[in-house]
Amino acid sequence: MTTTPGTDPHANDAAPYAGGDPYADYRTFGDPAAFAELVDLADRRLGAGVIAANDEFFAQRENLLVRERAVFDPEHFGHKGKVMDGWETRRRRGTADEPFPAPEDHDWAIVRLGAPGVVRGIVVDTAHFRGNYPQRVSVQAAAVAGAPGPDELLADDVKWEEIVPVSQVRGHAANHFTVTSQARFTHVRVCQHPDGGIARLRVHGEVVPDPEWLGLLGTFDLVSVLNGGVYEDASDKFYSSPTQIILPGTSRKMDDGWENRRRRVHGTNDWVRFRLAAQGEIRAVEIDTAYLKGNSAGWIALSGRDGETGDWFEIIPRTRLQPDTLHRFPLAGRAVATHVRLDAFPDGGVARMRVHGALTETGRSALAARFDRS
Q1: Mind listing the pLDDT tens digit for each residue in 278-337?
Q2: CA distances (Å), 329 to each of 108, 173, 282, in order?
Q3: Would you say residue 9 has pLDDT above 90?
Q4: How far apart are CA 173 and CA 344, in angstroms?
Q5: Is there a contact between 205 and 131 (Cβ–Cβ < 8 Å)?
Q6: Which residues are 199's β-sheet partners?
Q7: DSSP one-letter code for 337
Q8: Which of 7, 230, 244, 274 has the fewest CB atoms in 10 Å of its CB?
Q9: Straight-line distance from the first to the last Cα atom of the chain, in angstroms, rounded to the nearest whole number
Q10: Could you read off the pLDDT of 98-127 as tens digits, one per residue?
């Protein structure tokens, strides 16, 4: 049988696994540059979850949000077939007269974002799904207040906006899709057309917190990802992303923080800069070096800046740190800032940083305006 050019159904397949490192022929498609540094709104550490799926016959939907990359064991089979580290549905069928599924048939999974926000990019990772990945995918998103369940999200009155149109994907690959919508979403629905397996899903974007909720809290962590804090830049991110030090909760192992390389140039130091949720009055700071024992920062200093072009001022002077220890710094004076910069002398790691304070009137107004725009 001759295949018409451009219609080969296996054109996007990966080669069958031939042994050795299963990632040796792993591929990347699309341009992640516009969103790769942004926080994953579907991170389980933020409270995200896969709350419903129409089918998970071969592999569980919860695997989509596992932080570690997918693993592959060629010998692992179960009662339903090959055990895969991802979400995999059964093969859809049509009728005896037309055995293929109808064009509109598809499988779906609904993900509650851990932090509502504006989605900038989606990664559909089909690692190890070489011939059993979906032919195409699409992604819709919705904004639903409160803590809705599957039935409420699937109700007819919920408006789902398509943020990734039906698009081809490649097997055993990281498939990147840029999103242009400016709306704030709380949930996404990933669809497989018509069926297949996806190893991981990442939803990169910018957190947009609810200003009314933050107002009720009064004092909160101004730099936390959950509250809209954003990592902007760093001198070094060799071992791990600086975003990790503003994640909620405590670190659970050494790489669950920010650690840089060993610095050898005298008179220099490493640093990381963050934008706060909005302008706030900082009252207390916590610096945690949990699990960093022989590689924690020797000393730190914290500076603040009010506005994009304001001058940097001292919040915490250069202070010695202890390894594997939570350090608390109450501030004697008023520190109003929109940005903070943490300096590590000369290098080393920090597990978590908390910048406790309250929004100023200017900060509340700016946050409310952003919330309304999205």
Answers
A1: 999 999 999 999 999 999 999 999 999 999 998 999 999 999 999 999 999 999 988 999
A2: 47, 46, 11
A3: no
A4: 37
A5: no
A6: none
A7: E
A8: 7
A9: 52
A10: 999 998 999 999 999 999 999 999 999 999
Nearest 10 degrees: Cα torsion 79, 81, 82, 87 = -90
Sign (positive or negative) of CA dihedral 110, 115, 116, 121: negative
Q: Please, are residues 30 and 175 in contact by the beta-carbon 8 Å criterion?
A: yes
Query: Residue 4 pLDDT > 50, yes or no?
Result: no
Instruction: Using DSSP bridges, classify how beta strands 27-29 and 173-178 pair: parallel, antiparallel or unpaired.
Output: parallel
**CA-CA distance, 211 to 342, in Å (whole number)?**
26
Higher per-residue confidence, 173 vs 374: 173
pTM greater than 0.85 (yes/no): yes
Grouping H, G, I as helix, E, B as strand and the rest as coil, residue 20 is coil
Q: Report the C-alpha gap between 221 and 203 in whole angstroms.
A: 23
Buried b (16+ CB within 10 A) or exposed e, 91-111: ebeeeeeeeebeeeebbbbbb
- Nearest-angstrom CA–CA distance, 289 and 278: 26
Residues 6+ apart with CB under 8 A from 59: 83, 84, 85, 86, 87, 88, 197
Q: What is the rounded CA–CA span in Å between residue 85 and residue 125?
A: 11
- Hey, how many other C-beta atoms are within 10 angstroms of the C-beta on 62? 15
| 3-class DSSP assignment, residue 344 | strand
Residue located via tokens 């990359």: 69
Using CA atoms, how far apart are residues 209 and 188, in angstroms rounded to an integer? 17
Cβ contact 343:248 at 8 Å? no
* Gap between the Cα atoms of 185 and 145, Å rounded: 10
15-56 pLDDT tens trace: 999 999 999 999 999 998 889 889 999 999 999 999 999 999
Which pLDDT value is given to residue 25? 97
3-state class of 61 per DSSP?
helix
Query: For residues 200 and 127, is the Cβ–Cβ distance under 8 A?
Result: yes
Residue type at 78?
G
User: In this structure, which amino acid lies at residue 368?
Assistant: A
Tell me the backbone φ, ψ of residue 371, rounded to 5 degrees: -60, -45
Encoded tokens for 60: 């569980």
Report the candidate in 120, 42, 57 with the shortest Cα–Cα distance to residue 87.
Answer: 57
- pLDDT, tens digit, 9 for 90 and up, residues 226-262: 999 999 999 988 788 899 999 999 988 888 899 998 8
Q: Provide CB contacts within 8 A for 162, sequence distance 6+.
A: 138, 139, 140
